[in-house]
Design a protein that fits this description.
The protein has 8 helices and 9 strands. It has 208 residues and is of the alpha+beta class. It has a single domain (9-201), classed as Gcn5-related N-acetyltransferase (GNAT) (Aminopeptidase, 3-Layer(aba) Sandwich). Strands 1, 2, 3, 4, 5, 6, 7, 8 and 9 form a 9-stranded mixed sheet that branches. A hairpin with a 5-residue loop joins β8 (182-188) and β9. α2 packs across α4 (66-74). It is globular, with a radius of gyration of 17 Å. It starts with 8 loop residues before the first helix and ends in a 7-residue tail after the last strand. Bound molecules: coenzyme A (COA). The site of coenzyme A has 23 residues, from α3, β5, α6 and α8. Coenzyme A binds at residues 55, 58-59, 127-130, 135-141, 161, 165, 169-172, 174-175, 178.
């Protein structure tokens, strides 16, 4: 019995199959949960372009076109980010983008410190976005065990929300709560919007 090996972003880019799962959605199509790859730019652009104004407001991205998608693909294994997609099988349409950052933003450190929580290198940031026609159907909850497993395999012990969740996004707040996140505190974010920090303590990976 030994402690499971921690995955690196380079190892994942070299062998995306280590985090690839095929699953049947309840009452829906089969999907593949897998790391974003460099070949995904056009389909990722299709996903970003298809997001409604409300989804774009709830989940912010640096653009919604092919150039923005290309930047996300170019960033694979180059910085501190791990992005995974949910893809319809066999059609190949991308219907979800699940983003991790292994780096903590100084503003996060300050906010959590003010709430009495010291963030550490074993924490990560997470933000999910599903295509509009996939939202509110339990999909995010169905894939959450896979999301938590990714964080654990990256050697992380806690997940915080990437930039918090907007206070006027009750579905996302409920989603995080039902998947084990606890509210930390609310804050006024960029543009004067009220947001909520939430944190999840992960169970450790079982020994192999
Ligand atoms: C947030 C998101 C990933 C959640 O995934 P999902 O598959 O839609 O979530 P689920 O269906 O698994 O769970 C949603 C829960 O919220 C509930 N809910 C839906 N609308 C709600 C509302 N207006 N008020 C309160 N609860 C609501 C659902 O009933 C469900 O809870 P329940 O199972 O206890 O009934 C997805 O909706 C999404 O991508 N939204 C747009 C982008 C976004 O907001 N990202 C998060 C940024 S912080």
């Amino acid at each position: 019995m030994g402690v499971a090996e921690v995955l690196t972003l380079t190892a994942i880019a070299d062998d995306p199959l280590v985090l690839t799962h095929r699953l049947a959605l309840e009452g829906g199509p089969e999907v593949v949960f897998r790391p974003l790859t460099r070949a995904d730019a056009e389909r990722l652009a299709g996903f970003l372009e298809g997001l409604s104004p409300e989804s774009r407001r709830f989940s912010t991205h640096d653009g919604h076109d092919l150039a923005a998608a290309g930047r996300l693909c170019d960033a694979i294994a180059r910085y501190d980010k791990l992005r995974l997609v949910l893809e319809e099988a066999p059609a190949g349409r991308i219907v979800g983008l699940l983003e991790f950052s292994l780096d903590l933003h100084p503003a996060d450190l300050v906010r959590y410190q003010e709430a009495g929580i010291g963030l550490a290198t074993t924490d990560c940031r997470f933000g999910p976005t599903l295509a509009d026609d996939y939202q509110g159907k339990g999909v995010g909850t169905q894939i959450f065990p896979l999301i938590a497993d990714v964080a654990r395999r990256l050697g992380r012990k806690r997940i915080i929300l990437w930039g918090g969740v907007l206070a006027d996004n009750p579905r996302a707040i409920r989603y995080y709560e039902k998947n084990g996140f606890r509210p930390v505190r609310s804050f006024i974010g960029a543009g004067g919007t009220r947001s909520l920090d939430m944190l999840l303590d992960l169970d450790p990976l079982p020994e192999q």
